[in-house]
Each structure stands twice: as structure tokens, then as C-alpha cells.
Amino acid sequence: MATFIEIVEGANEGSRIQVSEGMTLGRTKADIIIKDPKVSSTHAEISVNTKDQLVLVDLESSNGIHISGRRVKKVTLLPGVIFEIGRTQFKVIVVEEELAINFEVFVTWRSKVINGVRQSAVVDGSASSKPESFSPALKLQFIQGIQTDEEIILGYGPRQAGADSLDIELLDEEAPREAFELLPGPGMVKIKINAVGRVTLNKKAVDAEILKDGDLISVGTTLIKVSYL
């Protein structure tokens, strides 16, 4: 039998990951990365108990592991068990070994966007706007905050960033639901800030600006460096 954990609530909802002894879960330094500001860098580890069952063990994290609102030190990964790490909720699923190869699924912002565009096309009969290329491509490098070391390469737009965005998700606790948009133009990219003051460009409150190499976008404690490729 193969054991999976499925994200039933939180970022990357719908993802299913096969787990095994020795694997770690965490926000940045782990085998399974959980994009959740309430999750520690290395939050928990999977071990095997005396009954040869997989067990998720808390690694002295700040917010722990919870089952039905109660904090626990460890969770035996039995079929149907639901547990929470930070704001992310998981469900344990066990399948036959021969089904495992086709059972693992990773749901990313890109797949959500593509699916959303398809659904909107069915409702409206056509996509609401035609994407245009960023030429040259744009790189967003997170150099401070919870998403430090994350990089996003953008080849087309428009793109939307925010706490609830299915496109560029901002995990900072102070991030607005709709933070900013990136709009294509000839040889450049324009930033349109939807939460003026809460989002700044080079420490200044602006409505819109043409982005230049080295520009810094600030959202809460998060700092994003802009560069063209």
C-alpha cells in the first residue's frame, strides 16, 4: 500500500503527495514545501512506529500539528485522518501500490490559472483578454520575507499578485488580497499598484510606473527585486 497526504484546504489545494519514512514538511527547508506563513522552515518529519505505521512527528515547531483544533505531538497517518499544519489542512489517503504512480498530483498557481481561463471561456464564450509577451522576460526575486529565495520568471502578461491570487501568490501576512498587476508594453513592463501605500516601489507610494532593472517592490516585510532577462 502507498500512503499519500492530500491538501484539502490551503495553498496548492488538491495536491496529493506520496510520503515515506524520513521525509520532512516545512515552509522552506523540507522535502515537502508548504506555502503557508504559519508553517516553520522545517516543521515536521515522517517516521515509522513500532507497529510499522507512518507517523508525522512535530519538530518543536512554533505552531505545531493540530487535529480537530487540538495540538498534538504526532499523527499516525491512517486512512481518512485529517490534520492541520499552520493554516493548511491535509487528509491521509492510502491506495494500492499499482495505483500510486498515477495518483500523485501537484496543483500549482499555473494550473489553477489555466483551469480558470478555460472555465471562464466556457461561461463567456471567449477569454476576457489575450495574453501578450513580456519582451524581455521579467524576473521577480524574493530577497526578504517568508518567500526569500523564491524566483518567478514571467514571459507573458497581464499578471496579478496578491494574497488570494491564483497567479502570483504573496504569502506575507500583510499582503493585500489584490496587491499589484504587471502589464505588458513594448520593451518594458508596467506595474499598476492596487493597494497604494501598502505596496510600494523603491520605498515610494505610486499608482503606476514603468519597471526598471533593480527596482524593489515592498509588500509588508516582503521585498521583491525586479530584473529583465
UniProtKB/TrEMBL annotation:
CDD domains, per database record: FHA
Entry superkingdom: Bacteria
Coiled-coil regions listed: none
SMART domains the UniProt entry points to: FHA
Residues annotated as domain FHA: 23-72
Pfam families from the UniProt entry: FHA
Signal peptide (residue range): none
Protein name in UniProt: FHA domain-containing protein
Native organism: Bdellovibrio svalbardensis
